[in-house]
Amino acid sequence: HDPLAQPAVDHQGKRAVIYVSVDEPTEGIETMIQADRFYTVTDYEDGKVPLAEIDKRALARPLLPIYHFSRSMVADRPNQPRLTYANIADGIEQMITSVRGQPEPDLIVIDYLQNMPIEKSTERVIQVIEATLKARELCLKLKAKLIVCAQAGFDTLKRNFKVPMMQDAQWGSIVSQEADIFLGWWRPKVTDMDKTSIELPDGSQILIEDDLAILGLAKQRKKAAGKSFVLRFNMGTLDLADYTCSCGGKNLWNNKE
Predict the structure, then answer these.
(1) In what side-by-side order are the strands of the sheet with 66-69?
(2) Strand runs labelled E in 81-204
(3) What is the pLDDT of residue 254?
(4) In degrees, to the nearest 5, what angle opens at C-alpha 146 toward C-alphas 27 and 24?
(5) Is 24:113 a contact under the CB 8 Å cutoff?
């Protein structure tokens, strides 16, 4: 999708994606949204994008209904509110009611669960339980789909095939209990730097490349699960595609499912 190629549109009656991050500053998130095949995230961070191009993209940016809630790196904003679920819900409602033609959220992404601040709770396990329950409450209140990112425990690193399973959610099994769909995400280049290949569940070998990613479908309420998908994920442009082997043209994985 290229927002620069789209005509001016009215968002009235349309739906939006809202990305909430506790760790990533809003300036960094916007850089990731702007990245594409012409200018990567690194190009933005290194100041290699011409100012004229930045201005052009800034004018086109309102056409893309993706909004984000996070802290700012700007020094003159010292009293930023904590990203509690109550503040997130209030912020979204204010956005919808205060801005004419503002699209309502269809999908909310929270990154990530274990770092969401929970008031009046100091025990880590209780915090994660409360954060999970409040995430579902937010989903129901706003009538939107919700993706909650969660950190996997260190036990995944002890396995050869390191795609996180339902029992691997750090600090709480409630994550897998509450989820309608549970997906595990693994980038072998990050965890297996001393290896040149990994073995898939079917016994085949696949080369470890920078953009290799494995997605595991561990749970899908009332539907079949237990599948793994081999993908290519470009960190510079955030492009995601089916895997095609570059080792002599031999496709080691059939991804038709």
Answers:
(1) 66-69, 15-21, 104-111, 145-149
(2) 104-111, 145-149, 181-186, 197-199
(3) 41
(4) 20
(5) no
Place of tokens 């050869």: 160
What gap in Å lies between CA 138 and CA 144, rounded to an integer? 8
Give the angle 73-75-77 at the CA atoms, nearest 5°.
Answer: 85
Q: Indicate the SS3 state at residue 240.
A: strand
Would you call 172 helix, strand, or coil by DSSP?
Answer: coil
Tokens 């079949």 belong to 224
- CA dist 126 and 171 (Å) reads 9
Residue 19, token pair as written in the block: 């990305």
Full-model pTM: 0.73
- Cα 181 to chain centroid distance, Å, stands at 15
Over residues 114-136, mean pLDDT: 69
Distance CA 245, CA 206 (A): 8
Closest CA to 148 of 121, 183, 123: 183
CA distance 84 to 134: 10
3-state secondary structure of 68: strand
Q: What is the pLDDT of residue 14?
A: 74
**In this structure, are residues 118 and 156 in contact, taking their beta carbons and an 8 Å threshold?**
no
Question: For the chain, percent helix, then strand, then coil, each to nearest 5?
Answer: 30, 25, 45
Of the candidates 20, 5, 13, the one whose C-alpha atom is nearest the C-alpha of residue 57 is 5
Q: Give the H or E element holding residue 16.
A: strand 15-21
Alpha-carbon distance 197 to 57, whole Å? 39
pLDDT band for position 111 (50/70/90)?
confident
Amino acid code (one letter) for 98: S
